[in-house]
Amino acid sequence: MDLCSEIRESEHLKHYELLRIYYYDAPPSGETIKYPVSGEEYQLSLTERYRHAQSLYDQLELKDGVAIRMGETRLSPQQWRMKPRSAKQLIKEPRAVEDRDFDLDIGQKGVDIRIGLDMARLALRDTVRAVAVVTGDSDFVPAFKFVRREGVKVVLSTLGHKGARRELKAHADFVIS
After folding, report:
1. How far is C-alpha 54 from the geometric centre of its chain's CA atoms?
2. Quick check: 126 and 91 in contact, CB under 8 A?
3. If residue 134 lies in a helix (H) or strand (E), which one and from where to where?
4. Strand 153-157 and strand 174-176: pairing?
5. What is residue 1's predicted lDDT score, i.e. its pLDDT?
6. Which pTM value belongs to this model?
7. Integer distance in angstroms from the first to the last C-alpha of the chain?
Protein backbone atom coordinates (compact mmCIF):
# COMPACT_ATOMS: atom_id res chain seq x y z
CA MET A 1 0.00 0.00 0.00
CA ASP A 2 3.06 2.25 0.09
CA LEU A 3 2.84 2.63 -3.69
CA CYS A 4 -0.80 3.67 -3.39
CA SER A 5 0.11 6.32 -0.83
CA GLU A 6 2.96 7.57 -2.98
CA ILE A 7 0.69 7.92 -6.01
CA ARG A 8 -2.08 9.46 -3.93
CA GLU A 9 0.29 12.13 -2.61
CA SER A 10 1.53 12.99 -6.09
CA GLU A 11 1.31 16.68 -6.97
CA HIS A 12 -1.12 15.74 -9.75
CA LEU A 13 -3.59 13.92 -7.46
CA LYS A 14 -3.34 15.34 -3.97
CA HIS A 15 -6.27 17.74 -4.53
CA TYR A 16 -8.64 14.95 -5.59
CA GLU A 17 -10.76 12.80 -3.31
CA LEU A 18 -9.94 9.10 -3.52
CA LEU A 19 -12.95 7.10 -4.65
CA ARG A 20 -11.43 3.62 -4.52
CA ILE A 21 -8.33 1.60 -5.29
CA TYR A 22 -9.02 -1.08 -7.87
CA TYR A 23 -6.66 -4.05 -7.92
CA TYR A 24 -6.75 -6.19 -11.07
CA ASP A 25 -5.25 -9.63 -11.43
CA ALA A 26 -6.05 -13.18 -12.42
CA PRO A 27 -5.75 -15.85 -9.76
CA PRO A 28 -2.98 -18.36 -10.32
CA SER A 29 -4.13 -21.71 -11.58
CA GLY A 30 -4.72 -24.37 -8.93
CA GLU A 31 -4.79 -27.23 -11.42
CA THR A 32 -2.80 -30.42 -11.19
CA ILE A 33 -0.94 -31.15 -14.41
CA LYS A 34 1.82 -33.47 -15.53
CA TYR A 35 5.40 -32.45 -16.23
CA PRO A 36 6.15 -32.70 -19.96
CA VAL A 37 8.99 -35.23 -19.82
CA SER A 38 8.77 -37.19 -16.57
CA GLY A 39 4.98 -37.24 -16.45
CA GLU A 40 5.08 -36.58 -12.68
CA GLU A 41 2.21 -34.60 -11.21
CA TYR A 42 2.68 -30.90 -10.59
CA GLN A 43 0.14 -29.36 -8.21
CA LEU A 44 0.01 -25.67 -8.97
CA SER A 45 -2.03 -25.06 -5.81
CA LEU A 46 1.01 -26.06 -3.74
CA THR A 47 3.38 -23.52 -5.32
CA GLU A 48 4.75 -20.47 -3.53
CA ARG A 49 3.21 -18.26 -6.25
CA TYR A 50 -0.24 -19.68 -5.52
CA ARG A 51 0.07 -19.27 -1.74
CA HIS A 52 1.47 -15.74 -2.05
CA ALA A 53 -1.33 -14.65 -4.41
CA GLN A 54 -4.07 -16.11 -2.20
CA SER A 55 -2.59 -14.38 0.83
CA LEU A 56 -2.46 -11.07 -1.02
CA TYR A 57 -6.09 -11.35 -2.17
CA ASP A 58 -7.21 -12.25 1.35
CA GLN A 59 -5.48 -9.15 2.74
CA LEU A 60 -6.70 -6.79 0.00
CA GLU A 61 -10.33 -7.92 0.35
CA LEU A 62 -10.39 -6.59 3.90
CA LYS A 63 -8.76 -3.22 3.16
CA ASP A 64 -11.03 -0.20 3.26
CA GLY A 65 -11.59 1.41 -0.10
CA VAL A 66 -10.11 -1.45 -2.14
CA ALA A 67 -11.97 -3.44 -4.78
CA ILE A 68 -10.50 -6.54 -6.38
CA ARG A 69 -11.33 -7.31 -10.00
CA MET A 70 -10.35 -10.77 -11.13
CA GLY A 71 -9.84 -12.12 -14.62
CA GLU A 72 -9.11 -15.73 -15.46
CA THR A 73 -5.96 -17.81 -15.73
CA ARG A 74 -5.80 -20.32 -18.54
CA LEU A 75 -3.28 -22.96 -19.47
CA SER A 76 -2.68 -23.36 -23.20
CA PRO A 77 -3.78 -26.71 -24.66
CA GLN A 78 -0.10 -27.75 -24.82
CA GLN A 79 0.42 -26.59 -21.19
CA TRP A 80 4.20 -26.32 -21.60
CA ARG A 81 6.57 -24.44 -23.91
CA MET A 82 10.28 -24.95 -24.26
CA LYS A 83 12.42 -22.18 -22.81
CA PRO A 84 14.21 -20.34 -25.63
CA ARG A 85 17.51 -20.68 -23.77
CA SER A 86 17.06 -24.46 -23.49
CA ALA A 87 16.24 -24.71 -27.19
CA LYS A 88 19.45 -22.85 -28.09
CA GLN A 89 21.51 -25.05 -25.76
CA LEU A 90 19.98 -28.24 -27.18
CA ILE A 91 20.83 -27.15 -30.71
CA LYS A 92 24.43 -26.42 -29.74
CA GLU A 93 24.90 -29.48 -27.53
CA PRO A 94 22.30 -32.21 -27.96
CA ARG A 95 21.26 -33.96 -24.74
CA ALA A 96 18.17 -35.55 -23.27
CA VAL A 97 15.32 -33.09 -22.79
CA GLU A 98 14.35 -32.52 -19.13
CA ASP A 99 11.37 -31.05 -17.32
CA ARG A 100 13.44 -28.01 -16.38
CA ASP A 101 13.73 -27.14 -20.10
CA PHE A 102 10.07 -26.08 -20.10
CA ASP A 103 7.92 -23.29 -18.69
CA LEU A 104 4.20 -23.41 -18.13
CA ASP A 105 2.32 -21.84 -21.02
CA ILE A 106 -0.21 -19.96 -18.96
CA GLY A 107 -1.78 -16.56 -19.34
CA GLN A 108 -4.23 -14.09 -17.91
CA LYS A 109 -7.48 -13.43 -19.70
CA GLY A 110 -9.95 -10.64 -19.17
CA VAL A 111 -7.86 -8.40 -16.92
CA ASP A 112 -7.10 -5.64 -19.43
CA ILE A 113 -10.69 -5.43 -20.62
CA ARG A 114 -11.96 -5.09 -17.04
CA ILE A 115 -9.60 -2.18 -16.44
CA GLY A 116 -10.69 -0.44 -19.65
CA LEU A 117 -14.38 -1.02 -18.96
CA ASP A 118 -14.11 0.28 -15.40
CA MET A 119 -12.28 3.38 -16.62
CA ALA A 120 -14.96 4.01 -19.24
CA ARG A 121 -17.83 3.39 -16.81
CA LEU A 122 -16.40 5.78 -14.23
CA ALA A 123 -15.80 8.44 -16.88
CA LEU A 124 -19.24 8.12 -18.51
CA ARG A 125 -21.05 8.26 -15.18
CA ASP A 126 -19.06 11.38 -14.32
CA THR A 127 -17.92 9.60 -11.16
CA VAL A 128 -14.27 10.64 -11.33
CA ARG A 129 -12.18 13.58 -12.49
CA ALA A 130 -8.88 11.67 -12.58
CA VAL A 131 -7.66 8.08 -12.73
CA ALA A 132 -4.24 6.79 -11.78
CA VAL A 133 -3.14 3.69 -13.63
CA VAL A 134 -0.08 1.60 -12.78
CA THR A 135 1.04 -0.18 -15.94
CA GLY A 136 3.66 -0.40 -18.62
CA ASP A 137 1.26 -2.03 -21.09
CA SER A 138 0.46 0.04 -24.18
CA ASP A 139 -2.78 -1.94 -24.65
CA PHE A 140 -4.33 0.74 -22.44
CA VAL A 141 -3.84 3.57 -24.94
CA PRO A 142 -7.44 3.30 -26.28
CA ALA A 143 -8.84 3.44 -22.72
CA PHE A 144 -6.62 6.44 -21.92
CA LYS A 145 -7.83 8.22 -25.08
CA PHE A 146 -11.46 7.46 -24.27
CA VAL A 147 -11.47 8.74 -20.69
CA ARG A 148 -9.45 11.82 -21.65
CA ARG A 149 -12.08 12.67 -24.30
CA GLU A 150 -14.62 12.44 -21.47
CA GLY A 151 -12.65 15.04 -19.49
CA VAL A 152 -10.92 12.68 -17.06
CA LYS A 153 -7.25 13.24 -16.31
CA VAL A 154 -5.01 10.20 -16.65
CA VAL A 155 -2.03 9.84 -14.33
CA LEU A 156 0.31 7.03 -15.31
CA SER A 157 2.82 5.27 -13.10
CA THR A 158 5.05 2.83 -14.97
CA LEU A 159 7.00 1.84 -11.82
CA GLY A 160 10.12 2.73 -13.76
CA HIS A 161 9.35 0.05 -16.36
CA LYS A 162 11.90 0.75 -19.09
CA GLY A 163 9.83 -1.02 -21.74
CA ALA A 164 6.86 1.35 -21.41
CA ARG A 165 6.27 2.64 -24.91
CA ARG A 166 6.31 6.32 -25.72
CA GLU A 167 2.73 6.06 -27.03
CA LEU A 168 1.46 5.03 -23.59
CA LYS A 169 3.12 8.00 -21.94
CA ALA A 170 1.94 10.34 -24.70
CA HIS A 171 -1.72 9.55 -23.96
CA ALA A 172 -1.44 10.16 -20.23
CA ASP A 173 -1.80 13.66 -18.82
CA PHE A 174 0.94 13.09 -16.26
CA VAL A 175 3.58 10.41 -15.79
CA ILE A 176 4.89 9.56 -12.34
CA SER A 177 8.35 7.99 -12.43
Report:
1. 15
2. no
3. strand 130-134
4. parallel
5. 58
6. 0.84
7. 17
